Amino acid sequence: MSTESQYLYSQLPAIDRLLRDPAIEPRVEQHGQTLISDLLRQLQLQARETIKQHQRLPDWCADWPQALGAALAQRQRTALAPVFNLSGTVLHTNLGRALLAQPAIEAVTRSMGEPVTLEYDLDGAGRGHRDRAIADLLCQLTGAEDACIVNNNAAAVLLMLAAIAPGKQVVVSRGELVEIGGAFRIPDVMRQAGCQLVEVGTTNRTHLKDYRNAINDQTGLLMKVHTSNYSIQGFTAAVDEAELAQLGAEHGLPTATDLGSGSLIDMAQYGLPAEPMPQRLLAAGVDLVTFSGDKLLGGPQAGIIVGKKALIARLQQHPLKRALRVGKLTLAALEATLRLYQQPELLAQQLPTLRLLTRPQQAMQQAAEHLLQVLTPQFAGHFQLRAEPCWSQIGSGSLPVDRLPSYALTFTPQDGRGATLEALAERWRRLPQPVIGRINDGRLWLDLRCLEQEEALIEVLSA
Ligand SMILES: *Cc1c(COP(=O)(O)O)cnc(C)c1O
């Protein structure tokens, strides 16, 4: 080792001395000695590495308290960092899907800090199970006889199959054997539930007679799956739920639909692409319908199964229900979300998902023009900014072909290089509150549909 390096190593302060530094002591008091010593040791190792490789002290060694502050901030950075979702996808699975309504947030907060009547009966009527109160609410809203709540819609489908058709054949159209993101594939779920999948029809056309011909004494369930994330167009035919329910009734077989998104309100009434509604399927005679809590419903992650009382009772009693049940936080959020549906006139204001989906293009255009003015000087010489019309997606398995007109602020690199664009996107992902946009057609697009606080974005991009 050179004497030069030896000298540099000797310049590194001892941990004990750092811990007594007046600028570091308050950190120790606030966070405890274990964490702070650990971070200081790490910094020291980093410094030693720099000396070894470059025969000099890293610049930050001039200010250990500040380096410690930065390391502490880094260590405490949450794994669930809040971001600006300007991706153009409203229900973005990787960004946590639906944002909860204020009453749901308050209900969750309350249930976190205080005991609640999760399975405790105040009126002595014998509540039975934790889903009871919310199942009643779901029955009011959908006309179902009963309901069951589990961790997500994938769990809802699994539980339904395992409880209703164990060891039996389940008949599904070939055109509906979907894969939803995150490895949810209907054939795999069937196998896990102990059911035998019987595919009928073809990819593009399936008729009632295909289901009828598949029925035998091993059949346990006739099932439909909403092809939420793709669409088959052209020469197509599918059997509607009412016909299938009729066929099931004739043969004494239950029918079920996995709806995926499922909306409790008529989306068309808000000028949005129509989505099937659980209440309509139940009215058409389907015995069980499953859907997600955090897609169009706009609530917490949950799987909801509504339908016939006797069938729901089998779900509630199945051992898998115990493994898939939800906690009080989910129930609190779901209850508060569902209550909003009892005041449909207020829904478009109170439910963030619906509020964002129904924002008029003009609102995003105004935002884009305002941001254009404020931000253009900062990017001058590097990026050309423009306010441009674009299309948002609903996301989370609503039809990808159904787009909503929106407006974006776009960034085109003046050197015309894709690498510059990638670098900008990368820089924004590293901001204290990361900004998530979309690169397309040689520019970075910030779709402003989900931006309700312009000032917050300006502040983050100007820092
Ligand atoms: C989204 C979806 C699922 C999975 O629902 P999760 O709540 O994400 O588990 C299952 N089936 C269909 C048709 C879907 O659209």
UniProtKB/TrEMBL annotation:
SUPFAM superfamilies with a match to the protein in the record: PLP-dependent transferases
Entry annotated with the keyword Lipid metabolism: no
Catalytic reaction list: L-seryl-tRNA(Sec) + selenophosphate + H(+) = L-selenocysteinyl-tRNA(Sec) + phosphate
Name the cofactor(s) required for activity, per the record: pyridoxal 5'-phosphate
Q: A single GO molecular function, which one?
A: L-seryl-tRNA(Sec) selenium transferase activity
Q: Give residues where N6-(pyridoxal phosphate)lysine occurs.
A: 295
Question: What is its subcellular localisation?
Answer: Cytoplasm
Enzyme Commission numbers on file = 2.9.1.1
Q: Matching InterPro entries, A to Z?
A: PyrdxlP-dep_Trfase, PyrdxlP-dep_Trfase_major, SelA-like, SelA_trans, SelA_trans_N_dom
Q: Does the keyword Magnesium apply?
A: no
Spell out the coiled coil positions from the record. none
Pathway-wise, it operates in: Aminoacyl-tRNA biosynthesis; selenocysteinyl-tRNA(Sec) biosynthesis; selenocysteinyl-tRNA(Sec) from L-seryl-tRNA(Sec) (bacterial route): step 1/1
Pfam families reported in the protein's UniProt record: Se-cys_synth_N, SelA
Annotated L-seryl-tRNA selenium transferase N-terminal domain ranges read 9-48
Which keywords fit this entry according to its UniProt record? Cytoplasm, Protein biosynthesis, Pyridoxal phosphate, Selenium, Transferase
> Briefly, what is this protein's role?
Converts seryl-tRNA(Sec) to selenocysteinyl-tRNA(Sec) required for selenoprotein biosynthesis.
HAMAP family in the cross-refs: SelA
| Subunit structure and binding partners | Homodecamer; pentamer of dimers. Binds only one seryl-tRNA(Sec) per dimer.
Q: Which PANTHER family does this chain map to?
A: L-SERYL-TRNA(SEC) SELENIUM TRANSFERASE
Indicate the family of this protein: Belongs to the SelA family.
What is the name listed in the Swiss-Prot or TrEMBL entry for this protein? L-seryl-tRNA(Sec) selenium transferase
Q: What is the lineage of its organism?
A: Bacteria, Pseudomonadati, Pseudomonadota, Gammaproteobacteria, Enterobacterales
